[in-house]
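Tutorial, part two.
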Amino acid sequence: MVRVHDLVKLKDVEGFLLKETFPDWVYSVLRDTPFVVVRRAPQMDEVIPVGIRGNHRSQRCASTINIDDIKVLSSPESIKVKEVKTKIESINKGLIQIQNIMDGFPDLTWGPTGSVGFELVTEHPATHRKSDIDLIIRTSGILEQRVAQSIVEQLKLLSVNVDALLETDQGAFALAEYATNCEKLILRSSVGPKLVYHPAFQLQK
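Running the prediction step on this input gives:
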């Protein structure tokens, strides 16, 4: 199963580059590091929406791949943060601290995304000393609000800034927003943002 945030190592980079006309930077980037990331958009008929990231923040390109284009699929949850490192020691320390926090919530799975996840999987430098740690926390049910609040409070104590998303079957919520008492939240769905009622409030009825 291919899900948003998964990193895909392409089977045939040159074949992929012949599919369409890309910005100039895409060709050198993918030949050097043949990875794309699954983006949040509808998946239909084994066509997977992906994003290509360059060496600069302004270098981002949307595309699609077929399921047969995948050589290796790496999910954020599959990254063993105690076994692989970025080049930034403060980020490595923060990842271990996050692992220790999340060990207290064994029913949840989590993993780093963004530049940190990209560097850990590809071994291509993507982080810098001011990089945040983007991460997802995945749940198949409704996460109790007190659990979200506990995680958020513990993440705030870390020396590195953490931007956490709660991934559900319907889409993603910002964990910090989910931990509040707002009646309605922004859900990042495959068809765009939606304003929805807070799922955890259903548990209180």
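The first helix runs from residue 13 to 17. In part three we will examine how such features are distributed along the chain.
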